[in-house]
Amino acid sequence: MAGVNPMLAGVLAISCCYSLYLAVAQTTDPTEVNALRAIRNSLVDPMGNLHTWNSGDPCTSYWVGIVCNSSANDHYLHVQELFLLNLNLSGYLAHELGLLSHLKILDVMWNNISGSIPKEIGNITSLELLLLSGNQLSGSLPAELGYLSNLKRMQIDQNHISASIPESFASLNRVVHLHMNNNSLSGQIPQELSRLKCLLHLLLDNNNLSGFLPSELSKLPILQILQLDNNNFSGNTIPDSYVNMTELRKLRLRNCSLQGRMPDLSMIPQLTYIDLSWNQLEGSIPANKLSDNMTTIDLSNNFLGGSIPSNLTSLPSLQRLSLENNILSGPVPAFIWRNTSLSGNKTLILNFQNNSLTEFSDVLNLPANVTVLLFGNKICANGSQASKFKLCQPQIIPLEFGNSTNSDEYRDSCPTNLGNEYNQSSPILGSCVFPVGVGFRLKSPGFSYFHTYEDDFKLSLPFRAYQLHIDSYAWEEGPRLRMSLKIYPNNSKPFNDMEIQGIEEKFRMWQITLPSIFGPYELLSLRSPVQDSPTANRVTKLAAAGIVLGAVTGAIVMSVVITVFIMRKLSRNQVSKRHSGQTSPIKIDGVKWFSFEEMALATNNFSSSNQIGEGGYGQVYKGILVDGTHAAIKRARQGSLQGSKEFLTEIMLLSRLHHRNLVTLIGYCDEECEQMLIYEFMPNGTLRDHLSAGSKAAMNFSRRLQIAAGSARGILYLHTEANPPIFHRDIKTSNILLDSKFAAKVADFGLSKLAPIPDAEGTAPDDVLTAVKGTPGYLDPEYFRTNILSDTSDVYSLGVVFLELVTGMLPISNGKNIVREVNHACQSGKMFSMIDSRMDSYSMECVKKFMSLARKCCRDEMKMRPSMSEVVRELEVIWEMNSESDTDTNTDTTTSHSFSLNSVLHDPVTTSSFHITTKPYIRFDDNSGETPTSLNPVRCLPIRR
Ligand SMILES: *[C@@H]1O[C@H](CO)[C@@H](O)[C@H](O)[C@H]1NC(C)=O
Ligand SMILES: *[C@@H]1O[C@H](CO)[C@@H](O)[C@H](O)[C@H]1NC(C)=O
Ligand SMILES: *[C@@H]1O[C@H](CO)[C@@H](O)[C@H](O)[C@H]1NC(C)=O
Ligand SMILES: *[C@@H]1O[C@H](CO)[C@@H](O)[C@H](O)[C@H]1NC(C)=O
Ligand SMILES: *[C@@H]1O[C@H](CO)[C@@H](O)[C@H](O)[C@H]1NC(C)=O
């Protein structure tokens, strides 16, 4: 094969996305190693949090807070993330930071680092998050930071940074969040910032900024929060153009020395929060009605005159209106709380103290949850009706006090000295676990009182699979809302490392999208159930494990890529170059490449009426391709984009798999920051749809059995025929699709991991250590505990699917686990009560056998479960028994014989060199005391229901 090498080099040069050396040499780029050493030497680490940085290789020896990735262009690992949040570090930031040329995230928040921001950070063009909040940094902002063309988030708030904002920041084309509040910035706000087309939140409050407010800021097309309070724009006015900021939610100009009139903000449709207090605004309050979303209006401490517009009476979401210390006159509009929804505990505070108001006619009608403050008005003159009531007393506006609902009721049984806690929100009484503790802060919330929004807030956090508890919250200067969150596992089993990592990542990578009313958030601290090792350490270990696996996968993908390329080169002497994006031009036989335009066309521009599903990965659309083919198009959500490597892995895998019980991949799209997979369309949707209570026609037992066998056959193919073998890892009823004849097809290989490959002697490890992924309720408990994945983890998930098929239940409902419920019912002789009552007629014996098989699949211990081929064989037995008993009862002609059991086994299982042979043989006798089943076909007795 001497001729291959130059060609290989050529292929590598063309593909330039993967390195063949990945699996061979895994060390960190030496330049970066030296840079990290310099960074370490300039930091002071009193707690020894960086002790792992003293030896070994950063990427492969688990240095704290370092996450690496392999590179497209060389064979080194590169530091992609530096995560040193809240580690008690002081010292300064070394200029060698600029040498971490692959860095995407630089996070040193909440330490005591001083000195200035090294200008060399501006050299890291890959940087996406620059997070320096909460340190002692001083000096000026380097203009070089403006070169960070990929930066999405700059948080330098709560430091001592001075001098002016560089005009070069106008080049931060992608920046969404610019948080520079609570520093000592001075000078004029550059009007050039109006070029930041992606800017959502501009926080510049609590600085020494001066000059005028640039009217050009109104050109920021999506700006939602403009927060400039506590600066000194002495003598200047609020630009008229600001009334045109159509996306604005929050405008804070408190204590800015502003003069002139208050702008009419009624044209801003979603405005929720205005604070213009402590200025010298004069004239009257505009009479037009503000947005229905207004929660807070603070115009206090100005020189506003005239009367209170009656339109302030019709704001349904209002929580707080403060007009204190102005020169308002006339009456308080009648029923000023009219139209405000006061349901539940909603609070409404109307503060009119120290004006010249003359009348308040509704004294006696005041609802209990409305507070009106009238002290210092003419209304309260001695002898008036109002003066007899408390509302004329000088009062301090009630603050909202955070709840703290820790109950000690079950504490006794909980060994809290180990850091465990009783989980108050758990449906399982007395469950005692160590929660993940998160210090969390809303930096600029759009409301004044949280309790109305607390439920929305909880629902917006992506932790439905767990129990989320707001331990306490408190308002802080700003106002900002600080909270202590606790996240508990959904059952009494402690979190495993991967789950914790998943939770942490959501916070520290800003993967949580909150409704705009909550504004930006920040992570203050993380406390994880592993006590002896700091958070970052564990993150690094896991990340490193990911790298090793990634490298192996990468090498396999690469070898396939190379093979494909070489074969194409030999046969056609050309390499397809159809790609317009930066990704490598890869043509995979049997899989079509589609452009983004073609996909937009097929799905009616991804219209919501074409959407047929949604998963963690993104949305699924129904589409019609140019040739008329119906297709299901799986579009990765922005932010959940896989690396090209994972994406290509999935395509490579799928393109080589052909089986009637697997969904076929038609093509893919990978351009313009979009990743899509195009599958054959399955007209009958997911199995879950047909089992849910809402489904129109309940399926009979034969059809359910047919689906069970089809799914098992598809998975058996993945385990034994795919080369290398594949563990699915996310088998669930929503991943089993049904074609027009209700034949089952297994879908979604997004979580697939290649199974271990036999070594030279032909032996293979039985299992592979890997990241726990999957869906709660379907997760193999042993895999969950140990992170060790084996083919029987898929057996477990499939067993859960079988249980759903026979019971119609969800894997987890109301905190109850289907496996536990069924086992419990069977052991107490109530198996019959579990059977889906919507199944028409069936043979009791067959259903029993099926149930018993399902339960064996769901045994806690891997070794006690049958292998996939045994599952398929047993289903054959049940099928034959069922067909014999079924001939006279089955009225559904579409199912009965479209399926032949021989076809279940038509794929030989012997080609696998490790799968079957290394498994201990498991007999199908049930040790739970049920009738032993036999592998000989037995005629089942039909019963009618
Ligand atoms: C940063 O880039 C500039 C050129 O833009 C170069 O002169 C300088 O040496 C670089 N600094 C570092 C630390 O790489
Ligand atoms: C607001 O925008 C409209 C339309 O673009 C424009 O005609 C108007 O002059 C703007 N108002 C201000 C005060 O800039
Ligand atoms: C209240 O607001 C509406 C809509 O902005 C406006 O048409 C109306 O004139 C206002 N009412 C008063 C009394 O000013
Ligand atoms: C404003 O109110 C509407 C209707 O209640 C709601 O759909 C929208 O989400 C709200 N906007 C904000 C920013 O809260
Ligand atoms: C109202 O507040 C009380 C105590 O502050 C609380 O117990 C209750 O659950 C709240 N009700 C609603 C609907 O929020």
TrEMBL record:
CDD domains: STKc_IRAK
Gene Ontology MF term list: ATP binding; protein serine/threonine kinase activity
Keywords, alphabetical: ATP-binding, Glycoprotein, Kinase, Leucine-rich repeat, Membrane, Nucleotide-binding, Receptor, Repeat, Serine/threonine-protein kinase, Signal, Transferase, Transmembrane, Transmembrane helix
Its membrane topology: Single-pass membrane protein; Single-pass type I membrane protein
TM segment ranges: 542-567
Catalyzed reactions per annotation: L-threonyl-[protein] + ATP = O-phospho-L-threonyl-[protein] + ADP + H(+); L-seryl-[protein] + ATP = O-phospho-L-seryl-[protein] + ADP + H(+)
EC number: 2.7.11.1
Magnesium in keyword set: no
Pfam family, one: LRRNT_2
Leader sequence residues: 1-25
Domain Protein kinase as annotated: residue spans: 606-878
Entry GO CC: plasma membrane
Subcellular location(s) per record: Cell membrane; Membrane
UniProt binding sites for ATP: 634
Domain of life: Eukaryota
Family per similarity comment: Belongs to the protein kinase superfamily. Ser/Thr protein kinase family.
Full protein name: non-specific serine/threonine protein kinase
Species this chain originates from: Dioscorea cayennensis subsp. rotundata
Organism placement in taxonomy: Eukaryota, Viridiplantae, Streptophyta, Embryophyta, Tracheophyta
